[in-house]
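Researcher: Going back to the complex we discussed earlier. I've cleaned up the inputs and rechecked each line, so this should be the final set. Can you rerun the prediction on the complete assembly and write out the structure?
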Amino acid sequence: MSAFLTLLFRNRLAAMGAGVIAAILLLVLTTPFLPLHDPDVTATADRFMRPFAEGHPLGTDHLGRDLLSRLLHGTRLSLAVGVAAALIAAVIGSSIGMVAGYFGGRTDNVVMRGVDMLMAFPYILLALAIVAALGPGLMNALIAVAAVNVPFFARNIRGVTVGLAGREFIDAARLAGMGHARIILTELLPNVLPVIVIAMSTTVGWMILETAGLSFLGLGSQPPQADLGSMLGEARSAMISHPHTSVVPGLMIFLIVMSINLLGDGVRDALDPRLRSGALSRPRATTLVRRQGDIPPATDDLLAIQDLRTEFHIGKRNYRAVGGVSLAVRPGECLGIIGESGSGKSVTALSVMGLVASPPGVISGGAVRFLGEDLIGAPYETLRQKRGDRVAYVFQDPLSTLHPLYRVGRQLAETIRSHHVLSKAEARARAIQLLNDVRIPNAERRVDDYPHEMSGGMRQRVGIAMALANEPDVIIADEPTTALDVTVQAQILCLLDDLRRERGLAIIFITHDFGVVAQLCDRVAVMYAGGIVEEGPTQVVLDTPAHPYTKRLIACVPEPGGGRRELAAIPGLPPVLDDLPPGCAFAPRCYKAEESCRKGEVPLQGPALHAVRCLFPERAH
Amino acid sequence: MPALKVEHLAKTFPLKRPLFGAAPPGARAVRPMSFQVEAGETLGVVGESGCGKSTLARMLVGLLEPTEGTIEIEGEALGSAGPAEFGKLIQYVFQDPQGSLNPRKTIRQVMEAPLRLLHGMAKPDRDRRIAEIFASVNLREEYLDRYPHEFSGGQAQRIAIARALAASPRIIVLDEPVSALDVSVQAQVLNLLADLKTRLGLTYLFITHDLAVVEAVSDRVVVLYFGAVVEIGRAERVFASPRHPYTSLLAKSAPVVGRSLAAPEQKGTELPDPLNPPPGCAFAGRCPRATDLCRAREPELKQMGEDQLAACHHPLEH
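Model: Rerun complete. Updated structure for the full complex:
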């Protein structure tokens, strides 16, 4: 709650709105106790007195009634009616929305078509019809305004509920014995509530305006009772001769609606999880670079990652996702990076081309050299020319990396044409050629498919075709087969293996699967908590792992053909990246850790072919 | 008496009726299948995405109503009872541990629901039972007043298992319980499940796509393809000496340390279209042994070897 308030008041406009509305509320709440004239007592002799007249600070209206007193009583009434209407509309609308969204199917259809019909009427016409049927009066105006706003809530809440109703925790609640009513009230409502609050905060202002509108037309409050709308309506005839009678209530409406809307927008921004996560602060085109320390000298590798450090600054916390990683690949080589979630393997890969989202990502040290040229801190245009052309990526989920609204052929052609001058027909021919290269049957026909028309395996082939489009030197594949079935995975792996042999491609292959690494990669680097703990030729690392983490991780993986058995596990959890222990990051979980492991950084050492970051490495067998 | 007996269980999802003309026949997610699970046994269910394993699981716990067929738990037919009746006998552990916990409820609220609603326990009894369950899944009681997002994947999955145990079921359906977890944590959860099973005398239905995991935890394994059982057998035999060509394909595709990379098939790998199922064997289009017979007639599940069954006209010989 306090986090919400801090966030809310960081927004200056919202804070200003909150201040104004608080002052108005204070005034109208204390109105009965203030020494004011009776708002309804007429004194025709004192009619149309100007503001600042004696005894009447805001003057009097056409019947000589005190304007200040009428204004405060009227504001009190208008606010009460507006808020009541908003509450009624929210309760009824949200209930309708939740019921329709939760049950779905026919219930949803019938209820929502009814709501749609209500929405099809112009709102003022509908309100007029309701008031005409029920007769004028403030209560009936309130009912009309609430009824007009029910569809807004119903549609909003239904949309949110549909998304929630399919979630697994709802199924789990049903299995725990909950009935429909209980699920709606105790499982759905707490999750929908923020949305209801957001919708209310942005509509209260509107409802006050609508009530004022009905009163202005003489359908709301009846004389002599004052509310802001009827005050404006009564002042209309004297607008030219005595403007203060309309300006006073007009200004008040303006202040109320403006402050409520500013506050409402602030509440929405502070509550909406999408906005809170920083979706409004668009990431920069390249990762922010704030390098400290020396920049390592160039080497003659094709792609070299040198002592790379990438951090995430979130609030006061500083997550060290990658802490000094050095890797290199040569043409035609496949380097595997293996690690568990949070080990920094993906962030390492994204840092190469400056693709880590900033904010919050910052590259704080090291270099990435492509043919000797440092890419960290290179101008955006240099990076853009190399992205997808010299260094290409293949991501885990092809459905989210392909644009759903464009045909795959067009997306392939775009990849080529953004780097090379080619006619549309040539680009299309090349796209078909590429689809053939990744063994998609009927490439001429499938080039015109949309991504959703393809299976997961086919989509990932398109992803690979896109990476190959400009004949890059390096492909960085981040868990490209994790989302695929095993039979499809086997084919994709074969495809990648063939491609690198045919074209001399260098592949950096990120995975968590030792089986995949063993089948595809020449060398493997094992990452833990943002650092490499062991690196060497795949066969050597898998047969004689030197780091206790590697050894125990391999033991965790069940192998087919072993029958029923107890599986090895590593006790404990990986460390949190904003609070890494001094010394070896694995020491708290390691069975052979000693005092020296917990002090000072452990270097990556050993022969160049098989280096390990451990003071007490496992002995080779 | 088997713990779970399923007969001719099938699910067809109806399709929208077009504006003109008759309704199409519907998508057959699970074709009539029968099997049984003995008390104290772990039955592994393996198959690729779209093979109907999740639909099967949801029918078993009563979240989906079967189109035809019966489910019997310990000799008692459940018919179309709601999830609450099913809940006392059979529980479900979901793939995504975070997604199966309501983000706005404390763990205590999550744990109390089945105790209160399924067993009508009073507050002191509930507290005692929760403490007991938490001790058995190695969770600290101080976690009870926290919210789901404060837990790692492995912890959240243990909480989900604890919730399933709170209903005191006889059978637990585990739907990919470790796929979302890292390997080092995966082993912790699998070992916990094995331990709970022996201590509480549970019966498991273990659904997964990972052959190595299923072999390590199961007594028997069912292989599904396109909504139908293609092979059933003892876990250690099914992948070592498969009779159905699809089981063999699966076994050969799994990446294994020490086996060189070779794509086991190059033909079309897509599952047949469920709206327009092929006549005959659904695997015939991908099968190297397929003949005209396969494309014309659907094979029945037949006994092959002493405790292995496969649905194939031309089974592999060993």
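Model: Worth noting: The radius of gyration of chain A is 34 Å.
Researcher: Good, that matches what I expected from the previous run.
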